[in-house]
Amino acid sequence: MSLDFLADDTSAQPSQGTGVPWKVLIVDDVKDVHDTTRLALQQLTFESRGLQFLHAYSAEEARGLFEEHADIAVALVDVVMETEDAGLVLVQWLRETHGNNLVRIILRTGQPGYAPEAEVIDRYEIDDYKDKTELSHTKLTTALICAFRGYRQLEALERNRHGLERLINSLKTLYSRQALDEFANAILQQLSALLDVELDGMVCVVDQSRGSQQSLNRVLAAGGALESYTGRLIDELPDQECADLIRRCIEQGETLWERTGMALALITGAGTQGAVFLKAPPERIAEDDANQLLRLFTMNASVAYDNATLFEEVHTLAFTDPATGLPSFSAFCKSFETARDEERPLMLGLFDVYRSREIAHGLGEERTERMMQKIGERLATELEEVITVARRESDEFAILFELDADLDPHELIARIDEIFHEPIELDDASLMVRGRLGLARQGIDGDDPRELARYAAIALNELRRQGHGRAKLFQPELQAIASERLRLASMLTRTSGETETRMVFHPVVDTQSGVTTAAEALIRFIGPDGTPLRTDKMIDAAEANGMIVEIGAWVLREAMRQHVMVMDSGSPHRLNVNLSPAQIHTPRIYVDIEKGLSESGLDPALLNIEVTENLFLDNDDETLALLRWLRERGARIYIDDFGTGYSSLSYLGKLPVDGLKIDRSFVMNMDEDTEAAAVVGSVIAIGAKLGMDVVAEGVETEEQRRLLTDLGANKLQGFLFTKPCPAEELRQFLGGRQL
């Protein structure tokens, strides 16, 4: 039987070659991938044969090319095209329907989460699977040369099928073994069957040094009496002649023969990765056919080893968070599906760590990741109802609870608080952990883990938006609200029509004299059709999609510019500007304020900054530092909508605050609601005791004005005096209105 196709390979040269070119089919829906691949490989030759490229931009187009060209050697196939599994469906058609088992398939994807299962690799004889991001020119060339070898070899094997039947079965077995330990055992078993030698004394060794100066040649599998040495270094093998032969085989990168046996080098694109030792005397395999079979087996075993290594790495990347070692969200989903199939009562939670940005700035990246690892481990081990915990975002954990759907979410967050009663110890840092919890219920809200995670995220985002509350269950109406926010947010982008923003001002008057002491700058949104849009809804939408910082910066600049224009009339009133938490928590806030002051020429001593009381929930140093900096520049700080959020009156005097604005909901009802009147009176009294300015919002009637005057409010604001108006109308108001 002739096996001359196994003659030594010629190396790839930058030439078009002289022989019939290899046909390479590129199947990908992205043109740049075609161009890049062709440019990278157009100078490649293998065995004096250049390359002829065929191009398909869909699986359907590829089917036509396979039917037209029976001699395609290699197909580079994208996994995700028209559908998430278009590439795999194409390969299935090629093997099962079209009956082509010769063409070599190299799967490529830019989405590692769509890696094919080992069973798919085995069934459709896929040679390789590569992530596009890791395909350098060298790796792509190496993969293609290996594929050409495979095609050439299988083409010859087809002609010699009967004589090589055992070899083909052996190779298929190797390619089906994706775990390295399974692969190593398969090598020994198939070599034993192929050469009719005993398993006893056979050893598969892998080089695990990975650039280390120290030798780490470890036994991955062994047969017979040596089986107990699996996992140990080869230095521990009882036969040191055998160990020395294996060591030299790996170092020299070639198959070595001696009287004790032979060591076959496993050589991949990354170099020599290991060796297989068998106690077969040289004369046992001296016959040409056996020798050629062995060479072919070793060559393909090397490729199969590279494949198994790649899949193990992909599996690790897919199911482990690389920074913390915690399960990834993909692993979390598998655990969820297992528990769901066991009909266990499940609840999916997303736990968001408070002050993570400030903590990261203080600890640095490496220590922050260690802290997140400790948080995840504590959640996983100290709550008995937890099935698994996964890292989902930088400061967010997915938690799978085995809990009934009627559990009170506040009870659950209380249990989490208990396990973090003791701080996280990290070197010289001791950190208290608190957070928010969004929840979705399996069965009630859905059965798919990714869908439930999205619902839990909606609940969590609602907690963030509200600025208070620790735990929330998903409700269907939250999704409708989120969808509406997205619709409104799209109206803020240029692609969906021009939404106009305008500036209006709402005066604040002195209770006793009626003189205007300040004007609050407010933004208004006008739709493309000229219809006014609800300001509170648009602000919510801007906060949800991250545009609030840009909008807030515009408000600062425009309010200061227009205020100075109105001040030209000689009015000494101050300017009130609202800052959102998102603005305050971005480093650019200092630049935005300085830019507004510089461009407008406004004296910062005429600036009042309004913030919500929930801003002080975490009492973080960055927020307090900004407010102190503003006060040092002469600005005053007011807590807006006071009484609706944080409301820690005992701590109020310690904050860098100059005044309070009583929320309109209390003021509007105080002439009919004694409890509302009592709240207003208490806030005014506390403000007076702390030496703070107290402004009552929402004054609409003379009776409300009288009551507030009697209670001692310093300043009033509301429709009783005027509605919010543009700068020019404000100028007229200031010039002609005395109260």
Automatic annotation (TrEMBL):
Supply the alphabetized keyword list: Phosphoprotein
Q: Where is the GGDEF domain?
A: 344-476
Quote the InterPro entries the UniProt record gives.
Answer: CheY-like_superfamily (IPR011006), Cyclic-di-GMP_PDE-like (IPR050706), DUF3369 (IPR021800), EAL_dom (IPR001633), EAL_sf (IPR035919), GAF-like_dom_sf (IPR029016), GGDEF_dom (IPR000160), Nucleotide_cyclase (IPR029787)
Does the record's keyword annotation contain Transmembrane helix? no
- Spell out which residues are annotated as carrying 4-aspartylphosphate: D78
Is the keyword Cytoplasm assigned to this protein? no
Q: Which Gene3D superfamilies match?
A: 3.30.450.40, 3.30.70.270, 3.40.50.2300, EAL domain
The family database entries (PANTHER family) matched by this protein are listed as: CYCLIC DI-GMP PHOSPHODIESTERASE PDEF, SIGNALING PROTEIN YKOW
What is the recorded name of this protein? Diguanylate cyclase
Organism, as annotated: Halomonas halmophila
